[in-house]
Every structure is written in C-alpha cells, then in structure tokens.
Amino acid sequence: MPLGAFRFLDVPSHRDPRGLLGFVEGSRDIPFAIRRVYYICQVPPGTERGGHAHRRLEQLFIPLAGSFRMRLDDGETQHDLLLDSPTRALHLSPILWRELYDFSPGAACLILASEPYDEAEYIRDHETFLAATRASR
Ligand code: TYD
Predict the structure, then answer these.
(1) Does the pLDDT value for residue 8 go beyond 90?
(2) Ligand 1 pocket residues where CB is under 6 Å
(3) Which of 49, 104, 110, 133 could be cross-linked to 62 through a Cys-Cys bond (beta carbons 3.0 to 4.6 Å apart)?
(4) What start-end ranges are recorded for coiled-coil regions in this protein (predicted)?
(5) What is the ipTM of this complex?
(6) What's the number of domains the chain is made of?
(7) What is the Å distance from ligand 1's center to 119 Cα?
(8) Does residue 88 fall inside a structural domain?
(9) Is the pLDDT of residue 110 over 90?
C-alpha cells in the first residue's frame, strides 16, 4: 500500500457452534511480516488514544470485542471509521495520523505490527506530520 493509505481487510475465520476463530498469517493474509503484537483494552469511557503517526510502521487493527472509532488523516483528507467486527480488520500504512475514540465498554483491539516498538519512528507532533506528508508526495 502507498504511504498514507488504509483499507479494510476480511480476516479469514472459522465459525462453528463453538464460536469464532480468526487467523492471520504474516506475509500471506497481510503484506508484511508480523514483528510485534500488542493490544488495547480496558479503555475508560470518554478516553481518546492515538494522536500520532508512524514513519515506517504498518499495522493491522483487529477489533476483537466491542467497538471504537478511528479518525484518520493523510494530510489532505480525513476519514472517520467504525471498527466493530473481529472479521473486518483495518490495515494502515505509514504516514497516517490516527485518533482512536468512542470505545464501547469491554472493547478490545489486537494490533499486528510490522516493526518492533521504536519511539523514534513515531510522529507525535501534527505540524511535523504535515511536513512528512508533503515530503512523501
Ligand atoms: P502509544 O503508542 O502512545 O499508545 P496509543 O497509540 O494507544 O496512544 O503507547 C503508549 C505507551 O506504551 C508508550 O509509552 C509506549 C508504550 N508502548 C510500548 O512500550 N510498546 C509498544 O509496542 C507500544 C504500542 C507502546
């Protein structure tokens, strides 16, 4: 995917009377090798998370339980997305400002990431982000 892009992706899954089992293989179901897994849960009502972009990181957000919203900004266009299905994941490429909000009670999101954690590749200042979007065009 190009920088600043996103897309929803249907997660392969198996549903039977015992419940839902979803699966993702790096470099097969998503175009990157999985180098890190983290999760967000127990978010207090009214809390906003994110407020940053990444210079290199690709991510797949899988909302395992409940729902939340994500505002995305590629420097030119804003999108407001609902993540509410464990079989509909959101793939983000780098250089995308994101804000996560409106978490439902009990919401839990699994994130598959293409790189180990590196604070140096975060962009936490919005002006720096806008400069990075201009440089990437
Ligand atoms: P941060 O990415 O700012 O959270 P959010 O995107 O939800 O706003 O991360 C919060 C803190 O957790 C920050 O101090 C860095 C730390 N952290 C790690 O140590 N490893 C990780 O893989 C992640 C995602 C965060």
Answers:
(1) yes
(2) 36, 38, 40, 49-50, 117
(3) 110
(4) none
(5) 0.95
(6) 1
(7) 8
(8) yes
(9) yes
